[in-house]
Each structure stands twice: as structure tokens, then as C-alpha cells.
Amino acid sequence: MHFLPFRGDSQRRMSRRGFLRQCAAGAAGMAGLGAGLSMPLRAFGQLSLSSYVSRMTEDQRRFLGEAGRRYSGTTLRLITEDTPPSRAYRDIALREFPALTGIGVSWELLPLDRIIANIVQDSSSKSGRYDLYYLDHSWLASMADHVYSPARLLMHPDIAYPGFDFPDFIDTLVENVASLDGRLLGIPFDIPILIMVYRKDVLEELGLKPPSTLPEYLHVARAVQESMAPRVFGTVGQWKAGHYALVCDMSAWLWGHGGSFFRNNSIPGFLDVEAAEALHYMLELGTCMPPGATAWDWDGQARCFAQGNAAIAIVWSEHFPMFDDPAVSSIVGLAEPAPCPREIALRPPSQTSFGEKPGISHQGGSCLAISRYGRNLIPAWVFLQWLTSKDVSVRASLLGGGASLVRNCCYLDQRIEEQKRVVPGTTRHYDVTLDAIRNRLGSGPNLRNWHTLAERSFAVELGRLVTGQQDVMQTLRAMQTAASAHVSKFGGSV
């Protein structure tokens, strides 16, 4: 295969590189595949050997081999959040891609807050330290000018990974996780999204049905609280004061009551009656939570539920496998996934600003994007296609302990179906997760420096609310003022 020279935005000739070694089919190779992973190692024993073996086609191997002959010796550099899915992707990549292509990979894993700091430094200096950026969807407006759109690359058949099938990526993720104002910025990579989880044993004991509406959700939380607390509390939130998790928690109730962060014409929506109703509802739920809830972020919330301390909760989908893992859970087989309660009302996106999409299932997805300042455009694109291909995505999901998938076809894969049982790394929450992605997804505003506004203002004000330092209206007025000032300073999304 002939690889055409490609000129990127900087008009310099780009080379291409990729990475990852082939997965050994033998037992020794399979044992090594889980090295360095915690949760995936516990899940490993529950999966058949074939679940980890690459199902790459000969055409795909040939493509990577020919790419490697041209770009062998190159090293790609990328940075992603340190999560079980990212560790699984990295593990597969480091073992397979260099062997297939001769292209090396340097992959940094960092906490989310350190990633944005590193990316901002790299893009501001245009140093080209990284070839690929991990972009949380909330960073898209800030990073849009610093990445190379894959839309142009998708048009070149000579650098198309066989069977990549871009239309297979779930539409709502392409639109809300990897695009800004209709411009494709990256390839969807992961999708934490809010789903409901409930203790079937607790609800059965009290004769309660899983809630399907917001009033029912509050009723169940109160009923459990009155009957079983402090042994089992009604619910638990991700209420850590000053943490972005608290903003995510609040957003579900805000959107679920028909509110939004912004109305149309860039006007903040915190003085709407729907916002006040949402925060009052949230505080009512707080009366049914363990005392430590205001110190727990999303991980703390999940651990609390896994320890059997709450009956229902709205959690990130990626945490569900924890509940079936006996190494960390006391409720193995007792937690059930379910759709989030129906919204009381839902404001249409046309009545919001900055691309905000109300929906109770808040999404925290991310994409991988090619830096405009890297020197390896074509190798980075080849690697990105391979990394997000169907086969690698499925294997990383299983090795990563049941992390959510971003492709339609992967949810139908036999290897995923086989894991829909009570085991570490379960995928039995995937049907609920896919429904949330397709039909219930909520996505925050695409506003420049949104993460700064959310973390340094909204999270702080909401923290004061849940710790009793100020009331609902004081909180909403402060958030309205901060949002208005932010829009005045930074303007729109582009």
C-alpha cells in the first residue's frame, strides 16, 4: 500500500506512527496482558481466553505492517485520564502496536485535573509534546483551535484502517463528545454516563418497586430511610463540596426538572423556577443520605453503595462492575441497573445556549484528538483508528472491567454478551447504559473555560448549599452572577 505524504495545518510534511504489540495466543501471553491492572486482573479469571485474543483481519495486519515500514522508529506521545479503561487500552497498545508497526508509544496516565493543565501548557506553547490529546467533552470549546479535525483524514482511502467504519460510532457521542458546532474534533473514546442502580433485596423486603419517576425516586429514598437507616440509607450522592462531581450530581436534577445552565441568548438559567425546584429536591434527597456524603466524590459514592450503605443512587455507569466484585463489594449480585427516573419536564436544546443538551443522564465522555502541533499526523491517525477499532474497543472494555463502549456494534459482540452475568467486570449494565447514551443523554454547555466556571464557582456555591452555609436562593443567585460574568469575559463557544 502506498501512503501519500500529508500536509497538515502547519503545512509541514507529517510522518505517521502507531504502536502496540500483538497479543500472544498462549497462556503466558494472556497472563501478561493484564499486567499492571487492578480491577481487570480480578475480572481476568472470569473470562474465556478467546475474549482477549485479537480478532484482527489479515487486511488490517497488512495495513499496519505497510504503515510501519514507512514510519518505523517513530514514537507517538499521548496523554489520557488514569482510569481502568485507559489502563486497559494502554496495556493492549504497548503490547501489540509496536510489534505490528515498529512504531513506539509513550502513554501518560494522569488525574483529570493534571491532564488539562498539561494540555493547556502544550497547546499554548505549541511545543508539540503530545501527538494525541485526551479531551473531556467540557474542554472542547477551549481546545477547538488546537486540534486537527479527523474529518479531512477520513476522506483519504490510502490512510483508512480497514473496517474502521466511522458511522458505527454512536451518533449522540459523535455529536456531544467529539464535535463542536458541527465540526468533528476527535474520535469518541469513553463514555461515563449516569444510570440508576438499586438494591433489589432492600426494595423487595419493603415491598417497593424500582422508581421510574422523580417523585417515586424520592418516595423510595424516604421509605428506606425511615425503615432501615442507619443500617441502609435511602440514597447517596456525589456531594463532595467544591468538587466537579457535585455539579454533575446537581445537573441531573436541574435537567430533570426542566431547567438548564443557560437559556437561549446566552442567559444563565439559575433564576428560573425549575432551578429552585431542582435544588430543593436535591436537598430533600440529602436528608436520606449518610452523614459523610458531603465528603464523597463519584468514587466515594460508588464505594459507599458497594459497601451496602444505600438502597438507590444515580451513579456513573463505569462504576457498576464494582458492585459485582467481591474484592470490594458486600452486595454482589444484589445491585440492579435501571434507567434514570423520567424527567418531570425537559427543556429542548433550542431553548438553551452553547450547545447544552438537557437530559437526566449526564454524560462525562471524552474523545481522542490529534494535536495541531505534533509532528506525526499520519502515524497518529493510523494509531487512533486502530485504537478505537471494534476489536480493540471490545477487548479494552473487558480488560478494563466493564467500561462503557462508544460503538453500536460492540454492544452486540459475543464477548460482551458472555459477560452479562454476576462476575467482576460484568457487562450486565450495558443495555441500560446504551439506552442512556442513545435516548437520555444530557450534555453541558460548550463554553470556553467551562471547567473553570464549573469547578471554581458552581462547585463552591453548591458546596456551601449542601453543607448548610447558604440557602437555595443565595446559591442560585451566586451561580447566576458567576455565569453571567463568565459569558461576558469569554463569550461564546468559538
What is the overall silhouette?
globular
Enumerate how many helices there are, as a single number: 19
**Uncertain parts:** 1-45
How much helicity do the residues have?
A: 40-55%
- End-to-end Cα distance, whole Å, is 39 Å
Give the assembly state of these chains: single chain
Number of domains: 2
Tell me the major beta sheet: 6 strands, mixed
Radius of gyration based on Cα positions:
23 Å
Report the CATH superfamily of the largest domain.
Answer: Periplasmic binding protein-like II
Strand content: 5-15%
Reading off the top of the CATH hierarchy, the class of the largest domain is best stated as Alpha Beta
Give me the count of strands. Answer: 16
| Average of pLDDT | 90
CATH architecture of the largest domain: 3-Layer(aba) Sandwich
Derived from helix and strand composition plus strand pairing, the structural class reads alpha/beta
The CATH topology of the largest domain is: D-Maltodextrin-Binding Protein, domain 2
